[in-house]
């Protein structure tokens, strides 16, 4: 039977920390216990800063614990695009930044003896439908990356690849065990972690309010929460929320040893799964914008079906999960000081947060310590971007406006609450009012007002993950209305309901 959970937290022992119980004062407040937050906190603590990290749930519980687990500068067929759009020097900086991120992860694992299935392996991008990757290989090599054209046989996948680019000496690991190691190293160095401590607002000062009441005052603050909370910096309007789906399964044959990603759509990304034995494989793909699809069960099935078609066998995953990240209009993350605020941010990792997040942590550390960082300007959090970026932002925000208006108009309920079947959710009628409802496996009915508490956009039910998702800016909620992912920090309202 398939476990509907990420394979990484499910196979790791994560440390536990108390929730905040009283007001605190610290030198640096880091909000978010994922890759960016934990790495930034550790880097600053090692440099002599006084750091306190808070996490709304458990450390590594969201996107960082739901990644593919690849740490690589090979981000698909991206370098020729970056060179054409931003110039060779910017493309070189991006490649060198992420290659440095790979090696920084390796050095932290070595320094602190983190047991996280660290493995060096090649990373391949391949085309199957005539996409020309020759220039991608040439540009990547010209930028100084460990890249070259390769033969289809090197993939280890039974696909008919027409072009293949190989990056040597890249890394895959167990991300949850790596995050646990970072947390242990951080606290051993004198840092403090509070879990189940959601920051709801940060005022100039810096003064952070928490959901439980205590106030945290700091000299510096880092917002490492996937997307900054609320309307901070306007990043909700400068990014788009992207969701991917993943499965862990066992093949009938030994799994390919390298990491792969397709240049053609639909994207399929693979890597070995050591926990599944020699035949274990992770597959991630079937991407779409958050809230853009309701039948996400089909997204999971497409991954299993793809593997089954390659190895001519019906394959049932051991685990299945999803994660989401944010994309920027110019393909580069935002890292640095948020416009109009003293708060530092890191967002828009384009699903490559293990390497980009490590780069971001170095930039944030150096900004707080007033050091130079060679990648700061490339990742500048205040940039507007080129004309193409502005046009993309306009188009994206027009779509958000349309979703806001049309989404509220099309709220068609699917009968009364007595029609909600076990394991099913969606929009239902309650005395003439449309409500969101879900009946869990124990027969308990959960009802919410299906309107996002961020900026009021309509929510869509995600059947595959059993969540309420916002297509406008990517907030996601559990069936009972509690917040899974921001930018919102407020749970969904609950309607008055009759007993089931």
TrEMBL record:
Start-end of Low complexity biased regions: 484-500
Pfam families: DAO, Rieske
Region: Disordered, residue numbers: 481-500
Highest rank taxon of the organism: Bacteria
GO cellular component: cytoplasm; membrane
Ranges of residues in domain Rieske: 412-500
Gene Ontology molecular-function annotations: 2 iron, 2 sulfur cluster binding; metal ion binding; monooxygenase activity; oxidoreductase activity, acting on paired donors, with incorporation or reduction of molecular oxygen
UniProt-listed InterPro entries: FAD-dep_OxRdtase (IPR006076), FAD/NAD-bd_sf (IPR036188), Rieske_2Fe-2S (IPR017941), Rieske_2Fe-2S_sf (IPR036922), Rieske_Fe-S_prot_C (IPR005805)
UniProt keyword annotations, A-Z: 2Fe-2S, Disulfide bond, Iron, Iron-sulfur, Metal-binding
Name of the molecule in the record: FAD-dependent oxidoreductase
Taxonomic source organism: Kribbella albertanoniae
């Amino acid at each position: 039977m398939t476990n509907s959970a990420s394979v990484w937290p499910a196979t790791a022992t994560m440390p536990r920390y108390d929730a905040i119980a009283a007001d605190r004062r610290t030198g640096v407040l880091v909000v978010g216990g994922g890759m960016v937050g934990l790495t930034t906190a550790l880097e600053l603590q090692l440099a002599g800063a006084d750091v306190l990290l808070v996490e709304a749930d458990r450390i590594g519980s969201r996107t960082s614990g739901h990644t593919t687990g690849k740490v690589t500068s090979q981000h698909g067929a991206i370098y020729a695009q970056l060179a054409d759009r931003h110039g060779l020097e910017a493309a070189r900086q991006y490649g060198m930044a992420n290659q440095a991120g790979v090696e920084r992860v390796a050095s932290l694992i070595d320094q602190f003896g983190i047991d996280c299935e660290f493995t060096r392996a090649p990373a391949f991008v391949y085309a199957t439908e005539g996409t020309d990757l020759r220039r991608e290989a040439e540009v990547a090599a010209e930028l100084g990356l460990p890249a070259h054209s390769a033969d289809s046989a090197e993939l280890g996948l039974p696909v008919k690849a027409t072009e293949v680019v190989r990056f040597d000496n890249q890394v895959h690991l167990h991300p949850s065990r790596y995050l646990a190691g970072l947390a242990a190293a951080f606290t051993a160095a004198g840092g403090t972690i509070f879990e189940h401590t959601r920051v709801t607002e940060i005022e100039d000062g810096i003064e952070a309010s928490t959901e439980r009441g205590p106030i945290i005052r700091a000299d510096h603050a880092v917002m490492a929460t996937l997307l900054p909370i609320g309307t901070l910096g306007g990043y909700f309007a400068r990014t788009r929320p992207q969701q991917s789906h993943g499965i862990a399964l066992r093949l009938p044959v030994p799994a390919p040893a390298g990491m792969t990603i397709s240049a053609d759509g639909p994207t399929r990304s693979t890597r070995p799964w050591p926990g599944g034995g020699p035949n274990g494989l992770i597959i991630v793909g079937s991407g779409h914008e958050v809230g853009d699809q309701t039948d996400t069960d089909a997204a999971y099935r497409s991954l299993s079906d793809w593997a089954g078609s390659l190895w001519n066998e019906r394959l049932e995953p051991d685990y299945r999960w999803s994660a989401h990240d944010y994309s920027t209009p110019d393909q580069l993350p935002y890292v640095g000081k948020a416009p109009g605020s003293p708060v530092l941010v890191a967002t828009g990792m384009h699903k490559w947060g293990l390497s980009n997040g490590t780069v971001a942590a170095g930039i944030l550390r150096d900004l707080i310590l007033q050091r130079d960082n060679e990648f700061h300007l490339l990742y500048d959090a205040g940039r507007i971007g080129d004309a193409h970026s502005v046009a993309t932002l306009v188009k994206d925000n027009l779509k958000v406006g349309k979703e806001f208006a049309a989404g509220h108009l099309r709220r068609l309920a699917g009968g009364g609450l007595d029609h909600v079947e076990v394991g099913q959710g969606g929009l239902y009628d309650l005395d003439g009012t449309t409500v969101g409802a879900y009946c869990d496996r124990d027969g308990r009915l959960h009802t919410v007002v299906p309107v996002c508490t961020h900026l009021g956009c309509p929510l869509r039910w995600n059947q595959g993950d059993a969540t309420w998702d916002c297509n406008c800016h990517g907030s996601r909620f559990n069936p009972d209305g509690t917040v899974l992912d921001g930018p919102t920090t407020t749970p969904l309202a609950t309607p008055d309901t009759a007993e089931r």
